[in-house]
Design brief:
The chain has 883 residues and is of the alpha/beta class. An eight-stranded mixed sheet has the order 14-24-23-16-17-18-19-15. An eight-stranded parallel barrel has the order 26-27-28-29-30-31-32-33, surrounded by five helices. The chain has a five-stranded antiparallel sheet with strand order 1-2-7-5-6. Helix 34 packs across helix 35. The chain is elongated, with a radius of gyration of 33 Å.
Amino acid sequence: MLNKKYVYLFPEGRKEMKSLLGGKGANLAEMTFIGLPVPPGLTITTEACIDYFNNKKELPQGLEEQLWDKLRIVEEKSGKKFGDINNPLLVSVRSGAVISMPGMMDTILNLGLNDETVLGLVANTQDERFALDCYRRFIQMFSDVVMGVEHYEFETILEKHKEKTGVTHDHQLSIQALKDIIREYKVIVKRVSGQDFPQDPSQQLILAVKAVFDSWDNPRAHVYRQINKISYDLGTAVNVQAMVFGNMGNTSGTGVAFTRNPSTGKKELYGEYLINAQGEDVVAGIRTPQPIKQLKNDLPGVYEEFVKVANLLEAHYKDMQDIEFTIEKEKLYLLQTRTGKRTTSAAIKIAVDMVDEGVISKEEAILRIEPGQLDQLLHPSIDPNAQLNVIAKGLPASPGAASGLVIFDADEAEVLGKEGKDVLLVRTETTPDDIHGIVAAKGVLTSRGGMTSHAAVVARGMGKPCICGCEELKIDYANQQVLIGNLVVKKGEILSIDGSTGQVILGKVPLVDPELSPSFQRLLVWADEIKALDVRANADNPEDSQKAREFGAKGIGLCRTEHMFMAQDRLPIVQEMILAENTEEREEALKKLLPVQQDDFYGILKAMEGYPVTIRLLDPPLHEFLPNIEELVVEIMELKHQGEEVEKIKEKENLLRKVRVLTEFNPMLGHRGCRLGITFPEIYRMQARAIFQATAQLIRDGYNVFPEVEIPLVIEANELNILRQEVEEVARSVQEEMGIEFEYTVGTMIELPRACVTAGEIAKHADFFSFGTNDLTQTTLGFSRDDAEGKFMQEYLDKKILQDNPFVVLDRDGVGKLIEVAVNGGRSVKSDLLIGICGEHGGEPSSIEFCHLRGLDFVSCSPYRVPIARLAAAQAQIKYPRK
């Protein structure tokens, strides 16, 4: 049997081979193909990685043989020989996943050096300092990645020698200092790992390939994949590439640049470089680099060539590129290009600008924006009128504003974040191991690193504010404090950051709501022109309704009347209604609630003039509006202990008795929804009257309004039939009393499995269906949401029992099948039956796509998710066009 092809030279690949060669390998192949200056190399495929893990972490058969065969061709192209003591070929070994995971996996540079080949490098370059610096770096990286010797062990030795010789930067160390450092590094490796540092380059390469494969399985990569929903089964490729050296003096350097600004989207070259440095120096944030435009002064010829290359790459890929480059003695080399990570506001501006430039179509622009990321733009910024105590300034690495408790440790940030506390992660620099802390933090502040450092890239991808390279900060980890001049800020004190300006502010700052940029508005207009689904909002008051309208909602898909009952001025009347001993007493209390409810509905219907408003009649069980049993018992005991009046105690005891009577073993499946309307019809009659009187009043005032009365929790057609007749009777009475005709519809919320399977019967009495997917998910899966998410959901996700939390992403295989049954059943009776969804799933992109595929008419979500739903609905139509 022929072995699989596991190893490809760069000229053998193309950009379309991303799933096999990984993003980095495919792009190196593509750049080689179009004739750009790429050092020669080879890619070990993602299939090799998958087979490695399936083979109990043994390299698959045939891989090593292919590797040495292809490496010989790389030797020929470079004119150097791997492991040769006179003219050694050194290589970099880097990961390259199918979907970019910046900083999550491992890299090794200068591989092939040992005590002998380093002398060959000295002879070839006539630069002993440079050769020793490469060897020092190689021992450090290889030992960290392959042999498990912690990075800080080497940093301690390095800092000690810099202090001893009175220098600030690594590149200022003398030849003798580097020799001493290399000797001490080897001692550390032997002490920590129990092995000598390997001297055989072939062994080094095999160990490095295995280590890069292993890094696909490391904890930070797991966290990153989980956050970004990247499949574990994709694996990573490994790229082995001839080294070029940016640390060969002042005509060499290394850098990272974007073809457009990744924070704002502005069309300008944006990035950084360091003279006399290697790649990890820029990304790790060890030295604060120079802006790319400064290269025009340092090496003008190289800068001019780089500008041409950057323009060519953007035109070729039709997207903003993130380019890694090295300059070796004034010669430019490209080490990577990939689609650049960017903030959401930048992504939108770039997409819209590229439509205007004729590079991409409107449809392509819409597909380029991840709908979930729009959330980032709908978050607050600092109030421009606020008085700010600015105490430091760094690089504005990721826009947005945040206040939080200063925390220096990623683990602690995660713990506090889970407790619901606002946290600001403050570090000298972040590493990929800090990712869980960045996820939990409201923002990130570092004292070192540039705009392309790890913290900056990761924060931008997550839409979190970030400031990097704030050198005024002196972080004292030992004493858990940060010094800014004479000011001391201790752990747990509050700082604020403005990631758009780089300002660090003492204390908490007031924030203001966001405004949609012109590019964002245009993108959403294009989305509205394309989408087939209408987008409504869930709103319970006029303010939310107005906000939803501003964000482009075409109506209210769910107005929860019980939220109005919870207001402190109304609760006593609601309780009076619940505690009534007979219908007369209950109706007396309802008379007091009627004008209050009417005002509520007047405001909401008015805010949504011209659009439909679905008003759900009372849904939760009545005991939810009454005091807690335990608190009442304690209160009664205290009253007795204090010798209070007997009448007052009796009143509380009566209340306790009533609460106990109303309390249910399983309230979610108890006396709630339409069951309340059946047993206490006067409650629903009052609410219907409030809706219709508000409607008539608005029509009289000249407004065009469309109320939709929704009966919740129906399981049987007869329930809806009875309650519909009640509603219609109230509507007729109001029309006669007020002398005004108005339009309205009556429908139901489909939120129980029985309602789905009997939807054909229910539809005979309904003008519309709206799926309440939260309750439908609970009753289909047999999960109580609070218990599931609090006790076992994470375990189910970790063990891949469920792919997604079904309360966040609609469960297509279970709940989705019931929705399909209900849609088909309802439309078999009424082909034009209006059908929508109003659970939280209405604002989640995958769930919206499902609704589009199943022929629903609208989705409804919270006001701040309306733009997300509009974009997701357009993407669904582009991918799966409806006639």
